[in-house]
## 1
Amino acid sequence: MSDKPAKPVLLTGASGALGRVLTRSLSADGWTLRLTDIAPFPDQVPTGASFTAADLNDGVTIARLAEGCGAIVHLGGVSVERPFEEVLGPNIRGLFHIYEAARREKARVIFASSNHSIGFHERSETIGADTQFLPDGFYGLSKAYGELMGQLYWYKHGVESVFVRIGSCFPEPVDARMLATWLSYPDLSRLVARCILAERVGCSVIWGASDNQRMTWWKDDARGRVGWQPLDSADPFAGQLAGKVSGNPVAERYMGGGFCALGYSRDAPAPQQLSQPGG
């Protein structure tokens, strides 16, 4: 990609796996990045980037880091299922600090949402981006909250957001579930760049998955609005992964996989998901 934004981009969660991927790809294209994470940055900070250690609970520091930025790519926070009290600070209060900073700077937010915000939809479904939230744990709940926070700031303050519901972003898919959910690193990098560079995005949802045709769970999102199409696919891995399943009936029934099974305590199998409340 030859384009780059006129203003710096703030990237939270920069020290994590996906943060490092985006740091490398965006820096290679000459972008000016402000990197932050509660953990030290494990790589050499690229030319044109700076790193500041910060806690998302520290709203003053987050606001200072966002000064003059045109976009905030928000990957920071707890990224796996954890007890509610561990999720509460970074994923709930921290997100408020991100949106307050975006409101003050008139910056666009690219929010790393998750398939776990809809994890209790069954794998027999094919769902659109406007589907009902069915989070599969406190982590997924925080991602649903994040999307609702973004909607509030769009309708009340005009802050643009793209919610990228990331499936499974790894170098390669590793099990049968990822034949539907896998997002390659290059597809992620291209997606985030387009979310930042697109002229207008409003308040949009995009499924963060590569062009996986063997298993299709998700459809009808806003990728056309930002001009993104995935170029990679999990399909070539189907032969070696088709039988690689967890063996847990709850994990295999729902889109959220193992997150759905964590702490699952229903005495009977969960009922078939109804298409509408009361339907």
## 2
Amino acid sequence: MHRNSGFPLRSTLAIGGLVALTACAQLGIVVTRVDYATQYEPAEARAAGGGDHQMKVTVLGNPFDAPHATLEAAVIDSMQGSTSGIPINFAANPKTRTQAARFRVVVTFTPEAIRDPAKLCTAGEDIALAAPASGTVPLMSAFCSSDSSVSHAIARASDIDGTASEKLDALMIQLTLAMFPDENPHR
């Protein structure tokens, strides 16, 4: 017999999310801005990168003393399974292309000239990057459909000691969770 406990599932999920964000804030990880276009649709994200399909991820900038390919692999590994119930396979070089190939994610470490992460969808790979200041790593990310932002976020973390850092992993997990909610917040 199913009983209604009087505590809705959404409340439970919201409390869990708040606890996770509080824990990350204590680690020095802060997601400072998240925005979703009214057309954000989790089903499209699932179609673009779920099942046998892969969603392209472009990583720009590198604040660490490591090869770019190592950072790219660490970022994508952290993003896998971090999409709040939306199964998406992220890849630097997708092996499968679909009609949903217009979707992609752009992750930019230490962007200098861009203040609006939605502009990452049109910026290209020649974006101006700055050196990280005082041990803090700023990060912008956008989930793009062609040249438009479907969702985007800004985050930062301090004292990340490299590409194998648990703090970098936690930063990417929080950023991915923020960009890919399981429903459109505008509804």
## 3
Amino acid sequence: MSMDPTSGEGIGNRAPLKPRPGFFSDKRGGTAIEFGLLAIPFALLVFAILESCISFAGQEVMANATDDVARQLRTGQLQQNNVNMDSIKTAICNRLQIIVANGCPGLFVDLREYTSFADAATAGFTIVGNNIQLTQGGSNMTFQAKPGLAESINMLRVFYKWPVMTNILEKQMQSFPDGTTLHFASVTWQSEPFNDN
């Protein structure tokens, strides 16, 4: 039998098989395993970014709606005899419907007159269970919509129970036991000297 001078192996024979690598040094399928390990954290990161961005956009739309309605009250476009809880909610909801469900479920509005800006600064709220409880000076208040007359000091507070869409993030973002988080906007102003009629 002749020999191959370069390899020293027999030409007619097959080359000897190299030993197969062990389990831990075998690279076949490594990409699939790495993807499997990284897919879940990557998906969680993407969902967290999307959830945060949508929630932030909802908060900004609500803040803009609150500013717009407050400006109409401040300048006398919306006057005391034309304002009630339903009209204020409708005015804000019409501006929110670009990003929230039809009818704005979870929308709460409080509009009231104060004797001074210092008095308005004592207005607060707490979350009790699934409810928003208004407070001022240690006493509880109910939601109302009563703007003052010209040159009066007023505060408009808008609350929205925003649904958290990603179940995994619900526990980190929720403000209420029902899985929603609170969006809040407030504007305090002194009305312009418009005609009260």
## 4
Amino acid sequence: MNFRTAIQIEKTTFNISHLDGILAMGSCFTEHIGQRLFYHQFKINQNPLGISYNPISISKHLLLLAGQACDSESTTEYDGYFFHYDFHSSFFDTSSKALIHQLREKIKAAQSSLARTNVLILSFGTSIVYRHKKNTNIVNNCHKQNADQFEKIQLSPNQMIQALVHSIQKIKELNPELQFIFTLSPVRHLRFGMRENSVSKAALNWAINELCNEHDYCHYFPSYEIFMDDLRDYRFYDSDLLHPSVEGVEYVWNLFSETYFEDHTKNLNQNIHTIQQGLSHRPFHEKSLAHQKFKENLQRKINHLKTSYPEFCWNI
């Protein structure tokens, strides 16, 4: 008797290798996949402009990468620090000028990497957003400001599609060969309520589906469906019962690998994993003969890989 619903994922028309440049932007689920890619020595640039959950804010970030100027008039001071409503709370400074300089440097660095990027992963978390009542702009982060400054709205699929098509086309003008992978974060935003979360995810899914149907460079990876329909067990969730556990992320990573990696890449990943495990080994007697031989063997494995991939970086 079968007690699970296995997700059937179609093989894509392109593959990802260690030679490809990857840019990952969006929700914290992007970081889970990004960490696995980084661990396996892929050239990954992960959320260079900070975590973002909704498609409107992510679209704004894409437009910044495409050359749109950062809005220097939108910084706000609170309790001695300045922040920007278009960016995550990890971006702040003691003056507006310093904050804008910090943001422009981050944008400049991300723009530089865009030319070397082959794959852009976008992960959406919610289509419920907050709009600032004073300037009517949708914010990326409320920065713990008074709730009466904002109004909560549910984005329509058409609103999201319009914003994403505009920003993606601008990016494609700079990098015509770029492939986009869309994912929908399985993390439930229950502070809005169960039903509201379901509507939010459904609207996102609709928007992504339309984009993928209309553009052959847009692809969907079903991380949401893997958790909702396959991993229907709380052992695959963290202690908050909302975020994926290590086992859950590993399961998704394995399916991601099967979808986008050829056998050569998967074999290389296994060799890299063996080296990473060796590097994390902590000996009982560090100066013992056995450990010195272990280190020499590990160094030989590293040197062998670096002959073909000199960009790989390890410290032993």
